[in-house]
Structure formats: structure tokens, C-alpha cells
Amino acid sequence: MELTLLGTGAPEGLPRPDCPCAVCATALGDAARAATALLVDGSLLLDLTPGIAFAAARAGHTLGQVRQVLLSHPHDGPAMEIPAGLPQPARVPDGRELTLISGQRVRAVATDAPGTGYEVTGHDGERLLYLPPSAAAAGTSGPEGAAAPYDTVLMDVLGRPDALARLREAGVVTPGTDVLAVHLGHDVPAGRETVRRLTAAGARTVPDGTRLTVGPPPAPGVRGLAAGTGPAPARPPLPRRTLVLGGARSGKSLEAERRLAAWPEVLYVATGGTRDGDREWAARVSLHRERRPPSWRTAETCDLVPLLAEEGPPLLLDCLSLWLTDAMDRVDAWDDAAWAGGGERELRERCAELADAVRTTRRTVVAVSNEVGSGIVPATSAGRRYRDELGRLNAAVAAECEHVLLVVAGQPLPLKG
Questions:
Q1: Who contacts 377 (Cβ-Cβ below 8 Å, separation ≥6)?
Q2: Mean model confidence pLDDT for the chain
Q3: What is the pLDDT of residue 222?
Q4: Of 203, 226, 231, 280, whose CB has the highest number of CB atoms within 10 Å?
Q5: Which residues are designated catalytic?
Q6: Angular region, 7: left φ>0, alpha ψ -120 to 50, beta rest
Q7: 351 with 389: CB under 8 angstroms?
Q8: Using an 8 Å Cβ cutoff, are 329 and 371 in contact?
Q9: How far is CA 198 from CA 131, 161, 233, 417, in A?
Q10: Among the listed ranges 92-96, 291-295, 318-322, which one has the minimum average pLDDT value?
Q11: pTM of the full predicted structure?
């Protein structure tokens, strides 16, 4: 089954006309996107974009072989013109199945937002799921009737990471599924940050006009992907370990949560515990809990090494700076005499054990830590000791991570990976 992405943008496109925002101002070249529209085997068109005939021509197609045009959502972008000879667009009622003249089978999938998703099965059984903007398949167990994993999924990954998590939980998106982000608008981060977030979600995006093959590679002499120039670009490898650093209220915890938003059953490990009578702390904890997807679980513990050694779902460790506070409490590191009498050696051993657990873990891990070394020098020896030890711990953990980010003013800056 050959796919041609005639557009990959939100219904209003990217950049938006007359929009002065930074994302629209920098959406040039391959970053410019027409409204999402997908041509399947040259004969089935899912959604329309303004100038659809020109978009097809740029990708090396005509629309003369299109036998069915299906719409997935109410159109609220620029006015559409239906080229002469193109079939009248239609919406298929949820659950209805069609067998097209060209041989594909199409099933309409109910969604939790206005619109309809489409499951397309090709001649050789290859399977595609296409979802409308801001939508997830209705229900909590994936599309009703979906019996096997999809080969390719096209959906609003950045707008609805929870929808991708549901598909994974249902088993219809697996490591072998090619997840393509479409419906990209001016609310996505600018530049390479979109690629980094999609990589963390196990997804990717491609420029308008890209051609892809779903299923086995084409036979010799048959044009393949990307206008017949070769195989599909490899998906970036998923980062196994990520460290997110930042100052107070920098947005580091929110950024860490984004990195795992498309994964179900994440274990959120809170190292801060509870503080009886501290209302401000309780409000902070409540805010974090409300932000987490309902499928995530929470564990309040500083015993991180056994968790890292176990098999299981992804871990979000928030945060290493509070873990260090607990570790320093346990060795009485705040007392100069205790520090000199063996506390320093014991703390370094605990930190080395944690870094080694990060190195050897088989789980996906996103860890959060404070960056406190760029501010005022603490006035006390205990404060300076904590600052120094946190710097050492951050460096040791960062050395074992594929990705390291520094969040400043809500902006993630890649330091590694």
C-alpha cells in the first residue's frame, strides 16, 4: 500500500495566514505544511487540502485515478475547491465498512472528538489507521473491532499524546508500527524541538509530498518510497534514559512529563514524600497529580535502585535533588564532624550505586533534577556541600543518559543526544 502525504498540517495549515506568531514566522521550506490529506494507492483520498491537484502533482501524482474521497472532520480551514473529475467527498458513518473498487477495505472508526477515523486494509493485509485532528479512537481499548496491530498510524501525536498511549495499551500500536504525526499547526514547538518530542513519543513526521510504502517492500522495478528514491528514512531511536535539568519553576517537570505522555502505565516516582501541615507543599503535590494521565501510577519512595533493576513500564523520577536530600539526611551529611567521619564516603557510594543502576536499567527512564550551581553561593557550609554534591550527582547520571536537557524559561535546550 503506497501512501502520499499531500499535506501534514492542521486544517488551517502552517503557517497560518496573517498570523504573527514565532512558529508561523519560521515555518519555511519543509516546515511549511498544507492541511493534512492522504492519498492511498493513488485511488483513495482521505481529506482535502486547498490546491489538492497541485499538491498531488508536486508529489508526482495526478488525481485522475481517485475513486473515493473520504472526509475525517468538519472543515474549518481555508475554502476548499474540489477539482473537476474528483468524486464528491463523503463521511462514512461510524462502524460502517466499505470495499472500494480499487481493492482496499475501509472501516469508519468512532472518535472522541468531532470527526471520523478510518482504518484501511490493503490488498496484502497491510493495515493503516488515520485519525482526525485532536481526536482519539473512542473508548479505552483502541478502535472497536481492531484485531491486529497497525503497520502505520497517522494522527495528532503532539496534540493528543494520550490517544497514542491508548493505542499502545490496546496492543494495536507496537514497536513495529510506524507512527506519523500529522495535523501539525502553529501550537507545535518550533524547529528541532518538534522532532525531539516526537522521537520521545516513538513517532516521526515527514514533509508534505513524502511517499511511503506500508507493508513489504515493493518488487524490483516498482517505485518505492519518497518519490521512488529508496527506503523510508529510519525512525530515530527511542531514548532509553533522559535527564531533565532546570532551575525552580523552569518547567522541567512538565517537560519530563511530556517526554512520556504517549506511553501508558508510566510509574511516576515522587521522591519528595509528604510534609504534614505544609499547605504550600501539598498544593504543589496536588498540581503534579492532576497533570498526570489517569493510566499512570505513583510511588512515593527514595529507594530508586530496586525500581531501576526491575523490569516494567517507563519510570519518571521526580526528582534527584530531593533524593539527594534524603540520602544526605541518612548519612547526617549536614554535620561537619559526621561528614568528615565517613558521611562523605557513604554518600558518594550511594550516588555511585544510583548512577550504576541508571547505567544498567532496561527500563525507559526520565529523571528530573535541579540545576543549582548557577546561583548565589550558599552562605553555610551545609548549603555549599549540597550544591556541590548535587552537581556531582547530576554529572554522574548525565554520563549514563542518552539524552540530557536543560530547561530555561520553559524552553528545553539539548545538552546531549
A1: 384, 387
A2: 87
A3: 36
A4: 203
A5: 288
A6: beta
A7: yes
A8: no
A9: 17, 10, 15, 14
A10: 291-295
A11: 0.85
Q: Are 379 and 219 in contact (CB under 8 A)?
A: no
- b/e map of 367-399 (b: 16 or more CB within 10 Å)? bbbbbbeeeeeeeeeeeebbbebbebbbebbbe
Cα separation of 367 and 269, whole Å? 9
The single-letter code of the amino acid at 379 is A
Residue found under cell 475554502: 79
Selection from 318, 242, 334, 239 nearest residue 285 by Cα: 318
Q: Could you give phi then psi for residue 266, rounded to 5 degrees?
A: -70, 140
Residues 358 and 401: their CA atoms lie apart, in Å, by 8
Query: Over 244-285, what HEC string results?
Result: EEECCCCCHHHHHHHHCCCCCCCEEEECCCCCCCCHHHHHHH
Orientation of helix 344-360 relative to helix 320-330, angle to 10°: 140
The three three-digit cell numbers of residue 322, written as one number: 530531593
Per the omega criterion (within 30 degrees of 0), is the bond before 143 cis?
Answer: no
Residues 6+ apart with CB under 8 A from 372: 247, 321, 386, 387, 390, 391
How far apart, in whole angstroms, are the C-alpha atoms of residue 258 and residue 261?
5
pLDDT for res 228: 39
